[in-house]
């Protein structure tokens, strides 16, 4: 039986630009502890035009878990700006709250 990751990868062969599949793959890589590959996938997603806003938040959370707090802050700030540009006040608010919690942890 195929793993969830293998199923996602198989679907990506048919549609390599599917943003949700690419995001799902990044989440599976994170679950498997393949942080570098996961973060690379997320960076590709938020590096696109327009950026995929949820990728900023997930990357920020993952970086914080890896004690890469300065990098997490940078990604979250960029994500907040992208969310506001796209009119996604909910995502901007969630990332702002998480960013604030990192400030408290880092001080």
TrEMBL record:
What domain of life does the native source organism fall in? Bacteria
List, alphabetically, the InterPro entries matched. Answer: TPR-like_helical_dom_sf (IPR011990)
Entry protein name: Tetratricopeptide repeat protein
